[in-house]
Design brief:
single chain, about 120 residues, alpha+beta, five-stranded antiparallel sheet, 4 helices, 9 strands, about 25% helix, elongated
Length: about 120
Amino acid sequence: MASDEGTTRIDSWIWSVRLTKTRSLAAAACRAGHVRVNGERVKPAHGVHNGDEVRLRHAGRERIVVVARQVRKRVGAAVAAECYVDNSPPEPPREEVAVVAHRDRGAGRPTKRERREIDELRGR
């Protein structure tokens, strides 16, 4: 299950330690340039070694992890957490849901003044 010698493909490792849901998503992130190993963009077949810094932009957030152990197959969450050191910045707090402008049915189109108020509420 775990391998300490040689290299592992970056897309396989990202998927194995549960940073992405599927291996195809990990490979797509590599092809799109969202994965960097030691500061360089990499292709899905790039080998990853112990001690490498992996940066992954996924789901609107950047994850920064250091490879502690290589795995080739997907492992459980407890084992996956031991395979890397997470140096990611803390997740930003969820913003409160903005008030949505609601118009009564049949009230017609908003006036220019109402549109400006709606835009102000939405932060535009």
